[in-house]
Amino acid sequence: MVPEMDKKGYDIDFSVGIIDSSSVLGPIIPPSILMVILASITEISVGALFISGIIPGVIFMLGLLIPTWIAARKRSYPTREERLSYNQVLIRTAKAVPTLLMPVIILGGVFSGVFSVTEASAVAVGYAFLFGMIS
Fold it and tell me: Which domain holds residue 102?
């Protein structure tokens, strides 16, 4: 990502800082494999860990997003080259819905008790495989 950001005119230090600091969001925001591993080692509920990661993850994300947005504005970094029409936004959103359903399937299945965490991973792989074959 850094070379592409460099091509667009972003400072290398800024690009590396964004990527480095945001890399810790993956383990915090569910579904996270590290939470599953931690739960299995410490015998804590995976569902409880997933729920406990949502609010800190969102707060951390906003804590990264707001200063980054302000710094990018101050430094006049480039924005999106094209503006999307309302119809284009709707079309792209509709195309993204199946992908966005995977966390809903995983978390909804685990929290509702329909399947265990291991079964949720198998369902997610099956869903991704089928969706990949269709699209």
Answer: 84-135
Q: What's the pLDDT tens digit per position in 75-133?
A: 999 887 788 899 999 999 999 998 888 888 888 888 898 988 889 889 989 999 998 88
Residue type, position 110, single letter: V
One domain, residues 96 and 69 = no
CA separation (Å) from 103 to 91, 93, 98?
21, 16, 10
What's the longest Cα–Cα distance across the chain?
A: 49
Whether the predicted pLDDT of 15 surpasses 90: yes
Would you give the DSSP letter of residue 76?
T
Q: Distance between terminal CA atoms of the chain?
A: 25
Same domain, 7 and 73: yes
What is the rounded CA–CA span in Å between residue 124 and residue 30? 14
Both structure tokens of 15:
């690009």
Cα distance between residue 11 and residue 68, in whole Å: 13
- Beta-carbon neighbour count of residue 124 at 10 Å? 16
